[in-house]
Give the backbone structure.
Amino acid sequence: MSDKSFLIAGLGNIGPEYASTRHNIGFMILDAWAQASNVVFSTERYGDVAVVKEKGREYHLLKPSTYMNLSGNAVRYWKQKLDIPLENILVICDDINLPFGTTRLRKSGSAGGHNGLKNITELLETKDFARLRCGVGHDFQQGAQVDFVLGKFDPQQIEEISLMSKKIVQGVKTMAFMGIDKAMNMINAKPKQEEKV
């Protein structure tokens, strides 16, 4: 596979009971991308996969079916199957340490307490893969983290995620054509309402 192919893994949990939950924002971003690109996911080994082809680039969208804590099985399998170089992998996940609507792209880093990232790091045997954290907020009391991340977004937030997904897709394409540094500058920029504070 050429260096013009990319593996974009959006993390989440399968099953209707997890649809539109905070932990599934990775699935939601990829669903929006696929819908906007008129492609459909097919159920394959370790996950649902769709391919978006544009301007000589191929984006392999992966929604692991392994459940969040075993996401590494899917990412490792599809990395090997498609022969995707490490620098062309991006993992999209939720982050309770960021305010809702905030996005943070990094070239590498720790799992930061995220079990999906932790498992991917263990199975790829490296932390040097790009990850895009999508803030879901942290409006919960001590001890209620699990209930919070498995809780559903409200309708207004779902609308905002649709807008967020457009920005993220544009950022991924920037990464594919101009490199991750340019994409970080774009994705990590604060929203205008934050800048006024």
User: Anything to note?
Assistant: The radius of gyration is 16 Å.
